[in-house]
Design a protein that fits this description.
The chain is mainly α. The chain has 10 helices and no strands. It has helices at 7-11, 16-31, 39-46, 60-85, 91-108, 110-116, 119-122, 129-151, 161-180, 187-205. α2 crosses α4. The chain is elongated, with a radius of gyration of 20 Å.
């Protein structure tokens, strides 16, 4: 006689449970906060055995690192969409769109963003190898894009592109963090602030200056 399917087999195809765990974790973080999160709670919510989540994540910290990694994937997708949409735009238009996309992602995806740049993920080198690789790949992609633009004469040749990208990320993270913490709470003011920031950043790259 065939063995009856488990609850995991009934509800999830191969690989689906891991993504379901990530999605449910994000939902709990967004709606209830980290204090409500546990692997046992996830198993119960998804209707699988208590041990099923451990087939994918060793512990809660590993799970949260994976959610942060998922956040970087979503973040990269959002920025890539801007590059595609504004590939023929002027430098100022592109930078304004990039800044607004960054701020929008941070504000609309705090459950991911908080983990992506959390001290618990990065302090003392505690980040997982895959999380570090995800974050650094996005940084490298931005540097390579800027270098190609520089080679094409679209960006000033005097700019240290690696340093500029670090400044770009640091500046936008600071604005995002202040917004998430309630310091910048007016959407219209934040959009205006974002555009002014984009214009200032582009001035450093403008090949015509």
């Amino acid at each position: 006689m065939a063995t009856p399917p488990t609850s995991e087999q009934k509800n999830y195809h191969h690989g689906d449970l891991k993504q379901a765990l990530l999605d449910e974790t994000a939902r709990i973080l967004r709606e209830e906060g980290e204090s409500a999160l546990s692997l046992r709670r996830l198993a119960s919510n998804l209707g699988v055995s208590r041990t099923a989540p451990y087939n994918h994540f060793q512990n809660k910290e590993a799970l949260l690192s994976a959610v942060a990694e998922e956040g970087f994937r979503r973040f990269e997708k959002a920025l890539n969409a801007v590059y595609r949409k504004y590939r023929d735009a002027t430098g100022t238009e592109l930078f304004r769109a990039l800044v607004q996309a960054y701020l929008k992602f941070a504000l609309n995806n705090q459950e991911y963003y908080d983990l992506m740049f959390s001290s618990r993920s990065w302090r003392d080198g505690k980040e997982t190898a895959s999380l570090a690789a995800s974050a650094r790949q996005i940084l490298r992609n931005d540097i390579e894009r800027l270098r190609r633009a520089q080679d094409q004469g679209l960006v000033s040749g005097d700019v240290d592109v690696a340093e500029f990208v670090r400044i770009f990320w640091g500046t936008l993270h600071g604005i995002s963090r202040l917004s998430l913490d309630g310091v910048y709470s007016n959407p219209a003011s934040l959009r205006k602030f974002g555009n002014a920031t984009a214009d200032m950043l582009w001035q450093q790259l403008d090949p015509s200056k």
